What does this fold into?
Amino acid sequence: MQETIPEILFWTCAGLVFCVYCGYPIVLAILGFWSPQRSIPENLSFPRVSLIISAFNEQSVLAKKLANSINLNYPEGLLEVVVVSDCSDDDTDDIVKSFSGAGVRLIRQTERLGKTSGLNLAVPQTSGEIIVFSDANALYQSDALRNLVKHFSDPTVGYVVGNARYTDRTGLTASAESEGLYWKLEAWLKQKESRFGSVVGGDGAIYAIRRELFTPLKITDINDLVNPLQIIACGFRGVYEPSAVCYEDAGDSFEKEFRRKIRIISRSLNALRRVPSVLLPWNQFRHWMCLILHKALRWFVPIFLLVIFMCSLLLWRYWLYRLAAVVQAGFYALALVAWVMGPRRSSFKGLYLPYYFCLVNLASLFGIVKFCSGSFSATWQTVRENDSATSNPSAYVARRRL
It folds into this structure.
């Protein structure tokens, strides 16, 4: 009996890890293949769209973002651009004001309350039938809005998620490449989920909702998960649109992404607590399955890994578990070597991939601890370096295409 329990725990946790990284993609591919492709009703008219850009100290990227926004290929007069400044103390507000002649509006929070609070403030002050949420460093392809909003001609669609791609301005770094590989897998999963039932969650860089489906949130809520969960709970579904593309910079180091990931995980777990009805499989079974296998179980992978390693040590006298312990120890040793090497690790894929895997799961573990302690961060810190000086923002104002 003493050895039976560790064996059960070992194989249960190993099965869950396999399910997260291998089983779920395989099952989803099969289910997606057999799910009929939904046709998109033809747009006879375009809805009015409000593009809300969240910003805190974004002087280095905001002018380029606003120029990109006012030049999007969307019918004239049907797009309003609003920037929510979360009490920025750099030139962010002045850059927005320099675009006022192009119709860009500034909404400023006088206290640093975070992104979600800013959205609560901004949405009632917009006029669009469709609300599109974006970040200051996310540059849209010209047809991104058209490709997002076309899905709302289907009355069952409550939100649409675009295709955020990562780039690296300074040459491909380990962080950027790993984020890129991660998001390629994420994009593939979203596409299959969308076809099977409903995509799980939004994307702060590019996602759209029906205006009437926005519910004011708590300032500690992660808006691009809580709001989609609320929409699902109302009986609507979410769609992923791969041709609605935006580009944003990945963090230039793993370490700069670490705290951001901790904050995201803790607030995502809180999102499930905030909308518990989505955890009931009989409400929307297809979305429930994707939510559990794509998100919830993945967040708990570090706990599964710890249990697997501990059980391997307890069962050391058996060759199979001894081999498992050695393989795990070797993998973690590679991650440790990569950590010691610092920036030099980027030259060795065999090092930075184990390092990235361990860092992501360590962030998940810290996020779980943070969630259990009830400590949720409402504010965020930009993970890229802001330029010390900004070029003349008015030079970025371009004539908007019709």
